[in-house]
């Protein structure tokens, strides 16, 4: 089933309400929202490229126009992972495990098609890849247990979608950016060089990870909680053979789910957009639920302004560990860029408000959208790290909000 995009016309008063403060006048009162239908790749099932429930993979596509006709933005949806049979069975019932539960979506943020709101990528061919495999597109297990009907085929989905996009015209791209939020941001790291290899040698091709630089750090009780979680994902999905060999030849596959061990050896330019106090990482790496059974961190995990002095100190230590791990990637290639702010946030490219205008975090007098665009076109070597919390007044929110369905993990 071929998808298409259309504009959903909004009443004038509602168009105004949907704009961030300070942007009124940039768009007319009849501003419209780009609503994009689903493209389902029925033919991909022949190669076993299917979602957790066996349904075909799918994506949303909006064609480029004007000067952007030869440029491609492929954005990978986020939404966490599943690390065992029970977890994956639960996941396969919704859109994060089945294309049958997917539908039309509205493109915003980095996918927005208004030049005022998305100055560098608004008229590109834009794709949002549905995430229905639970492994950041790395899984590949042939056998399907008839008792569960679970299919671990994420890597095949990635290949099938890319093949379809290449046939749509991406094979002739002059510019291309692989981006993603959260688990999708991890996908853009793990598949960055593979994506680059698909495109013309003379094309400008880069990758962007938004909220996807997950670090291997101990929790507040001293346990390597997230390391065990990532190892379970890799084992469940049979991901080892689809992780970058530059990492798996040096260490165990589970470790190669962490960007800090993969990104320094990526050959394609990479931009890292992340909060040093990433709200999902604080909740699941520093303070996973099993490490706080008495609920001492409950309020702090939800709202950084409610953290006490000792808890803030713990977060500052986490920030230092994050920056230390990031340092290997920063030093690996001068073409890499980064925007590391001190917000309590997770993913900052998908909402127009946090991407471009009044609610966008600012570093070096530059919004997120401007930083990514300037870096992509080699107009500015953007490398900015924020001062420690609470110095940044441009942070738009202090409360945890799951924007992509990524909830707290549930390792026993």
Secondary structure layout plus pairing:
Elements (H helix, E strand, L loop, with lengths): L4 E5 L2 H7 L13 E5 L1 E3 L17 E5 L8 E6 L8 H7 L13 E2 L18 E5 L24 H15 L6 E7 L1 H8 L1 H6 L6 E7 L14 H13 L7 H4 L10 H4 L7 E6 L3 H8 L11 H5 L6 H24 L4 E5 L10 H4 L6 E2 L2 E2 H9 L6 E3 L27
Parallel strand pairs: 5-7, 5-8, 8-9, 9-10, 10-11, 11-14
Antiparallel strand pairs: 1-2, 2-6, 3-4, 4-7, 12-13
CATH class equals: Alpha Beta
Radius of gyration: 20 Å
Second rung of CATH, namely the architecture: 3-Layer(aba) Sandwich
Number of strands: 14
H/E element string?
EHEEEEHEEHEHHEHHHEHHHEHEEHE
Total count of helical runs of at least 4 residues: 13
Which key terms come to mind for this protein?
single chain, 412 residues, alpha/beta, 13 helices, 28% helix, 15% strand, globular
Could you write a compact summary of the structure shown?
The protein is of the alpha/beta class and 412 residues long.
